[in-house]
Write a structure and sequence with these properties.
mainly alpha; Monooxygenase; 3 helices; 86% helix; elongated
Amino acid sequence: MIKIISGYATMFFGISMVLFGLTAQVIKNRKEKQCGNPLVLALLAMMVYISRATRAITIGDLFILIPDVIGVILSLVMIGQFIKYRKK
């Protein structure tokens, strides 16, 4: 029972962090037509989410996989914004 409760808590807080934190940054970047964070931060976040998602797949844990897949997608969006809005 505790395993299921902690799994749902992990998924809830993971999705909340990704949806509120990264989404807010994506929206801010779009409004300002620039990226406030360095590219290395977006790349690092993407690598963390990819490694966690890979681990979740190997152990069959959807509670971790779902937020991390969302994190990979939003990290890719932030990298795309960095490329689009970079100073020339």
